[in-house]
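Look over this entry.
=====
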Amino acid sequence: MSATPVSHSGFPAARSAEDIARNLAAVRARIAAACARAGRDPAEVRLLPVSKTVEEARIRMAHAAGLSEFGENKVQEAREKAEAMADLPIAWSVIGHLQTNKAKFVARFAAEFQALDSLKLAEALDRRLQIEGRSLDVFVQINSSGEASKYGLAPEYAPAFLRELSALPALKVRGLMTLALFSADAARVCACFRLMRNLRDRLHDSAPDGVTLDELSMGMSGDYEIAIEEGATVVRVGQAIFGARPLPDSHYWPGGAP
């Protein structure tokens, strides 16, 4: 069991390019340290900076600091930012729950969608992507904590869902995604990540044609080090780079702890 603590404390605001660069360097150093503890190569872990609620000026600062992809929870916010910063070579990842009627927007601009958890949404995305003449990398979202307040499939439904996705050619299934339990108890958080790693490993070799399960997107600013120690290949980090958001964590986490 990892001794790495979970932190949901506030992160200092990053208002300048120097602040962002300093925080980014610190996050990368912690990723490297977590990989060292787990005997992993840091090159195996992709940092996905999460820019939800972050204004355009600071995203541009982050891009100048070397970041070229950003994750957004809300498709409307992501779409507006993509249009405003079309002059920059940025890949946008939509990482939050998506309503079926907004699939057309994701199909037009997103490079990746990490919250796929229903066949209805998958079919809508596939149709719109074919109209746009595009394909889209997707992750299947799993509810690893079992909380009714969270989106995502129950783990036992994943095999059948992957078989259904294999019939949708515009969707390129790359792996699984989860939000762990929001808790200061590292053991309970770790259990969510371990469940995900075991599920991915079980499904990997029997994945249907056209489905690859090489990726595990798990871990956020408060728990990404534990996630890496348990096998994460993508970590979604926002506040540790950009500073605390205007509202408390419980606003952004379904079923958040006190």
Notes: The radius of gyration is 17 Å.
